[in-house]
Design a protein that fits this description.
The protein is of the alpha+beta class. It is built from 8 helices and 11 strands. The longest helix has 27 residues.
Length: 243
């Protein structure tokens, strides 16, 4: 199934997998669940006893602050495992919502325990993926606290492009980014109006062109230099796998 191959491609970015390991990994993508745009996989504070694989579509996790404003923490793409940071917690620490129509495959924590028992390579890879997710969260914090608005958006677009390149062939100078202006604002601590102005500024510098949800980057290296984007935090390898 195509949704399985996307998750496998995600994992194979970190390490080579045997046929038996691919089969074991695909057991986590049983019972696909279709969810419409705006539907919630789970909400912050609910009992955490499961994770999920995003097989198709885009989703995000968010945290609501005391004043009612929203902070977006993660953006999920096909092949991503959702809920790894909550593996040892009793409740979900953030709300996960579908950005587009999605296919999720939920699985209880005990299924992951089974994978850990059966394959040390997959265990190491899950830890590597968890480390990358944590590194992306750290970069999000740096974006919020230390970069100006143009650098924030440019860095985020470079990150999205690099992540998409893991499971998609081609240079990806053009890609679809199905996030609303409000979502981008909540990611970067800006207002939607400010996001629009930043896109206009990047366009005037011939760095980024946006047509609704379509993003075009005419010179990737130029944008990376502008954003001071170093993608090493996205390229961790699984330890002890020979990868």
């Amino acid at each position: 199934m195509s949704h399985q191959s996307c998750m496998v491609r995600h994992f194979q970015y970190f390490t080579d997998l045997s046929d038996s390991e691919i089969e074991l990994l695909c057991t986590l993508e049983k019972s696909p669940e279709q969810m419409e745009n705006g539907s919630f996989l789970w909400r912050e504070g609910e009992h955490a006893e499961e994770m999920a694989v995003l097989s198709q579509g885009w989703a995000y996790s968010s945290y609501v602050l005391e004043d009612g404003s929203r902070m977006i923490l993660d953006v999920y793409m096909p092949g991503d495992v959702i809920g790894l940071r909550e593996y040892a917690t009793e409740t979900h620490q953030s709300t996960v919502e579908a950005i587009t129509d999605c296919t999720f495959c939920r699985f209880p924590h005990c299924h992951l325990d089974h994978v850990f028992r059966e394959s040390s390579r997959l265990t190491n890879t899950f830890f590597a993926i968890s480390a990358v997710q944590q590194s992306m969260l750290v970069e999000r914090m740096v974006n919020l606290g230390r970069r100006n608005a143009q650098s924030k958006l440019a860095h985020f677009l470079c990150e999205m492009r690099s992540r998409l390149a893991k499971t998609n062939a081609g240079a990806l100078d053009e890609f679809r980014l199905p996030l609303s202006q409000q979502m981008l604002a909540d990611l970067m601590g800006l207002t939607p109006v400010h996001v629009s102005r930043v896109f206009s500024s990047l366009r005037s510098q011939s760095l980024v062109y946006r047509d609704r949800h379509q993003i075009t980057i005419p010179d990737v290296d130029k944008l990376k230099a502008f954003a001071d984007f170093r993608e090493g935090y996205l390229r961790m390898r699984a330890k002890g796998t020979g990868a």
